[in-house]
Each structure stands twice: as structure tokens, then as C-alpha cells.
Amino acid sequence: MRILVVCGAGASSTFVARRIRTSATARSLAVTAEACPLDSLPQRLDGSGVVLLGPHLGNRLDDVRRSADSAGVAVAVLPATIFSSPSGDEALDLALEAAGALSTQGEPQRSDGGPTHG
Description:
Elements: E1 2-7, H1 12-26, E2 32-37, H2 41-44, E3 50-53, H3 61-70, E4 74-77, H4 89-98
Parallel strand pairs: 1-2, 1-3, 3-4
């Protein structure tokens, strides 16, 4: 699954995408995560499974969802705490849930081995 992490210019989303890739590797999931500036999103939707929209772009959700829906891509807004999170687990779980894949992956595990709920 390809995840696009979208922010205004693509800078802060680079760190989130890197943490998502690390978490996916720890879980042995076939996931790629890429940073994407908002203005280039329409050209990058093909082949993507999920768009994770930065919390500061939540007001653009309807516009992004319209573009993504026509491409068959799920969209979720990241929580405000995501950029300070030390791991990519929360963002990865959000992407999997948005794509409807969380329930097919079995019990989700954080990269530290613990359960994601508690």
C-alpha cells in the first residue's frame, strides 16, 4: 500500500513518512510512505491507497476527499500530535484503518511490540 503524507510544502510530512516506513518494516507490512506537498497531490494520487492529510490542512479535507474519491484513494486527517510522535505507529494505524486494511492485518502491534489499544 502506498501512503501519501500531505502537508503544505512537504517538509514536516517527510518526518512522518519516514516514521511510518519504519513502523511498517517492523510489522513486516508492504507499505510505502511518501511526503507530498498539497499542491502536487492531484498528480500523485494514482497508485496510492491512502492520503494522510496534515492536521493544519483539515480545512481542505472536502477538496482533497473529492480528488481522492475519484481516484479510489482513502483520506484521513492526522491528529495534531502526529508531528511530535516518536514513532509512526499512530499514523500507520490511521492509514490502515482508512484503507480498511487494519482488520485484515490481524491484531495491530506497535513497533515496540505492544498492543495499539489498552
